User: Which sequence fits this backbone?
């Protein structure tokens, strides 16, 4: 997919320079991200190409992690970074305790159906123009259509002082669309994003039917009203369910927060934390999903972890530091945005297991409530045990039927209450949405989140 | 390409030869020191050095614009990046505009001598002092913290002979303060950027954050109601910067999306806002914007009346207006030293709110029943509709002019532009502030009739 001569050379340098040190543990991470991005709206077209490299070396001692990084990836820079690190770690004269995985040698890449690099840029731009034109003529109230396409390849290698040499090439392709509509003085919009660790085939998934639904939905928002406020029965769509899982038992189970005394779930392993209808997975090996990878940035193979099983808390997410400190098996959850950032415990693809009821049946069975759809963003509260999830749209449910459209719905509440209140989980509609996740307000990594439809009770505003 | 010494001739020669069109190169060189804390210990020390650039090529007839970003610093790579940008430009259709020519620039204050002299020492000393101050508290503890310093050099060169360069510093502080203990614990999790240490002196900001944390030791969830609310400067920043910034942009006007019209009443009379690209030590202060155009002060809202739009190069030329220095490189998740990876967008510099004539204490004393909102989880309003909804993370009830018990939970929601019409008081000391949004000098603002959703 990409020229790997330079990658091989940096990996070779790292291997040689890390060898024979007298430090407990040192590793080096090389990261090269290339991207083609195309955007089109009513005003203009933009195409950009990105090639960002970096190398980061780190060591661990009783005085914590020390990182040195640079986006110069030549041998003399790598040598300088490692020497600086060795000097400092020796000076701290302390031992560290890490749960190091067995060393591995891997060189792998994620296969895709349609390699974006084999498709001319002209063809991609033309496709975006067609999508734009198609949507634009669907309704006279459309004032702008924004279409964005991005293909990214992450070429990442990890070399450790105990012998791991792992390299992975991960393509991520994404297409997103926003329809902006206006009637009199009311302006609104709706949006859609498709993507994952997939190739150009994702563009084919943005069908005329999906575009038409999006246009109708945006137009419907012109008449939508604010949601009722206070505690409500709420039915969540699969993307919103995934975000609830992500913000509640995803962030809450990142074990670095537990070590800091910053997790309300710290002493709840084996205890009931949700309705017995709730089972949540964290799966970095899920084929095609946005958050998938082959091994994490500690060199641990990707895997499917169960976080909550039938309402019982099963596992935290770990890296090599928390695995040692909490004597727990590694979960392959160490990730970084790129070589300029620190590695943290992060989620990959977080989703809820499907249930047994049909969505239609759940709606029919709801006397009064709110349906929440098209999640926009969410945020965690790892110590306080709260959460916030915001969705673009929804509907009032009255006597088992969806009625008036709603706009901008915010769900908040205590995680244990909201997930304890889940009384219905659908078997249909399973979907994992692509997204991006920060550790707090920064350090963004690609993730997926999803599930099927849930019904619960929460504060709506 | 060795840009640190400004080897301009070589860059110009390579780009002239490769593109044979209008070009612009934006170069950033930065050093960053990040000290991360766990309780009374250091969790991580991160040092980073970063150089990168973005090349934009604009073709004369089609207006096609192609962009290449790279972190590889060689002439060969520069040539390849420029060629790629040129190839991409040939595919595009966009309105043509000229890049700025050389102009006289005003001096601005963007760098702190202390950070310039020894940025690593500043970060470590700040972290030590913050830990010491927090350790004196009985019921509040530090679980996690970040103290980060940056020295960032920005340089723009273009094919019209423009060459400008500036150096800026930043300090970023983020603390998670655990309030109480056991299963009833909660936290206050503030963060803020500044240009200089004196704007975030630990003896001011850390003590202020501790005071807010203490106010939530006793707390209750809110009830569902409409109420009077005083917003902290950080909350003002998060609600109003993305919304006023977007609707004041020439881009929003051009797309028929702006809710503002010139000379239209858009807010209460108390509200006056200037987009001030020259504000001393403002987070988006600079002599020139990210296209090389001089930054300036533009009146946006005066006594509640909308006055002017903000223009970057493209919109100024295509809409026959004067550029206001509002071509800004920014993007979701893009840090101050990663801006070379973005394309200039039509955005605000520092939205600077005029202070009112009451102190914060007087604003509180003048409030019979309401809420002081210190922090919401993530407001992130829809910039087109300006609607928002967010969990209340740290607030305090106001009863008969006094701050009483803490309020945590539930949510506040509404439309930013509806709220602007219900302003009933503004405090007298605006401050350089950041939240999730960036580029704001804000006071405390009191609003009437804000919707709260709670447990009952």
Assistant:
């Amino acid at each position: 997919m990409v020229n790997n001569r330079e990658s091989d050379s940096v990996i070779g340098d790292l291997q040689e320079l890390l060898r024979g040190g007298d430090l407990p543990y040192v590793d080096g991470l090389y990261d090269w991200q290339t991207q083609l991005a195309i955007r089109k709206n009513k005003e203009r077209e933009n195409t950009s190409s990105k090639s960002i490299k970096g190398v980061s070396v780190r060591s661990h001692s009783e005085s914590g992690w020390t990182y040195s990084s640079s986006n110069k990836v030549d041998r003399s820079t790598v040598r300088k970074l490692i020497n600086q690190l060795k000097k400092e770690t020796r000076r701290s004269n302390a031992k560290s305790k890490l749960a190091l995985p067995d060393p591995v040698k891997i060189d792998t890449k994620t296969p895709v159906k349609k390699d974006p690099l084999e498709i001319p840029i002209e063809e991609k731009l033309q496709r975006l123009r067609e999508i734009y034109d198609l949507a634009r003529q669907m309704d006279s109230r459309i004032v702008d259509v924004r279409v964005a396409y991005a293909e990214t390849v992450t070429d990442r290698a990890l070399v450790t002082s105990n012998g791991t040499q792992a390299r992975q090439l991960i393509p991520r392709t994404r297409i997103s669309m926003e329809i902006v509509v206006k009637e009199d003085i009311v302006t609104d919009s709706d949006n859609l994003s498709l993507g994952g660790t997939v190739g150009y085939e994702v563009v084919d998934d943005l069908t005329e039917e999906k575009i038409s639904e999006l246009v109708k939905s945006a137009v419907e928002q012109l008449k939508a009203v604010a949601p009722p406020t206070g505690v409500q029965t709420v039915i969540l769509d699969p993307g919103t369910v995934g975000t609830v899982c992500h913000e509640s038992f995803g962030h809450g189970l990142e074990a670095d927060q537990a070590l800091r005394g910053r997790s309300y779930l710290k002493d709840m392993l084996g205890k009931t934390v949700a309705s017995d209808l709730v089972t949540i997975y964290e799966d970095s090996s899920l084929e095609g999903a946005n958050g998938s990878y082959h091994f994490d940035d500690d060199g641990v193979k990707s895997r499917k972890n169960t976080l909550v099983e039938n309402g019982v808390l099963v596992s935290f997410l770990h890296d090599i530091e928390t695995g040692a400190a909490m004597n727990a098996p590694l979960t392959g959850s160490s990730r970084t945005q790129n070589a300029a950032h620190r590695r943290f415990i992060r989620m990959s693809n977080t989703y809820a297991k499907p249930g047994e009821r049909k969505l239609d049946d759940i709606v029919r069975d709801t006397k009064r409530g709110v349906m929440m759809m098209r999640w926009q963003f969410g945020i965690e509260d790892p110590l306080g045990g709260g959460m916030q999830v915001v969705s673009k749209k929804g509907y009032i449910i009255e006597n088992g039927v969806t009625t008036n459209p709603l706009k901008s719905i915010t769900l908040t509440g205590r995680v244990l209450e909201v997930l304890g209140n889940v009384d219905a989980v659908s078997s249909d509609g399973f979907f994992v949405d692509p997204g991006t996740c920060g550790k707090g307000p920064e350090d963004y990594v690609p993730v997926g989140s999803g599930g099927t439809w849930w019904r619960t009770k929460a504060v709506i505003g | 390409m060795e840009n640190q010494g400004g080897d301009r001739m070589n860059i110009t020669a390579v780009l002239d030869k490769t593109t044979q069109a209008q070009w612009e190169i934006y170069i950033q060189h930065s050093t960053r020191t990040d000290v991360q804390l766990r309780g009374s210990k250091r969790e991580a020390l991160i040092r980073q050095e970063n150089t990168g650039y973005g090349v934009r090529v604009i073709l004369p007839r089609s207006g096609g614009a192609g962009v290449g970003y790279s972190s590889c610093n060689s002439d060969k790579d520069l040539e390849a990046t420029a060629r790629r940008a040129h190839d991409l430009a040939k595919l595009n259709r966009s309105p043509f505009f000229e890049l700025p020519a050389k102009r006289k620039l005003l001096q601005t204050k963007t760098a702190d001598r202390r950070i310039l002299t020894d940025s690593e020492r500043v970060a470590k000393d700040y972290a030590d002092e913050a830990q010491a101050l927090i350790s004196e508290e009985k019921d509040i503890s530090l679980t996690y913290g970040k103290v980060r310093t940056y020295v960032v050099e920005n340089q723009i060169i273009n094919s019209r002979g423009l060459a400008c360069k500036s150096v800026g510093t930043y300090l970023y502080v983020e603390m998670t303060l655990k309030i109480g203990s056991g299963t009833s614990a909660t936290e206050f999790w503030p963060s803020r950027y500044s240009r200089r240490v004196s704007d975030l002196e630990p003896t001011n900001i850390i003590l202020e954050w501790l005071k807010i944390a203490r106010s939530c030791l006793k707390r209750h969830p809110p009830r569902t109601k409409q109420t009077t609310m005083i917003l902290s400067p950080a909350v003002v920043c998060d609600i109003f910067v993305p919304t006023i910034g977007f609707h004041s942009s020439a881009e929003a006007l051009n797309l028929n999306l702006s809710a503002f019209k010139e000379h239209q009443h858009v807010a209460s009379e108390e509200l006056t806002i200037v987009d001030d690209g020259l504000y001393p030590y403002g987070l988006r202060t600079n002599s020139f914007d990210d296209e090389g155009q001089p930054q300036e002060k533009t009146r946006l809202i005066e006594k509640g009346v909308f006055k002017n739009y903000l223009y970057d190069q493209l919109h100024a030329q295509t809409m026959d207006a004067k550029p206001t220095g509002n071509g800004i490189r920014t993007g979701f998740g893009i840090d101050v030293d990663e801006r070379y990876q973005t394309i200039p967008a039509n955005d605000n510099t520092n939205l600077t709110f005029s202070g009112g004539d009451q102190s914060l204490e007087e604003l509180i004393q003048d409030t019979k029943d309401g809420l002081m909102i210190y922090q919401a989880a993530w407001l992130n309003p829809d910039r087109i509709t300006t609607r928002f909804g967010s969990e209340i993370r740290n607030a305090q009830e106001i009863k008969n002019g006094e701050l009483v018990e803490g309020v945590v939970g539930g949510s506040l929601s509404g439309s930013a532009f509806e709220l602007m019409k219900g302003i009933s008081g503004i405090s007298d000391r605006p401050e350089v502030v950041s939240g999730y949004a960036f580029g704001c000098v804000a006071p405390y603002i009191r609003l009437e009739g804000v919707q709260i959703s709670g447990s009952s």
The CA atoms of residues 116 and 200 of chain A lie 5 Å apart. The radius of gyration of chain A is 23 Å.
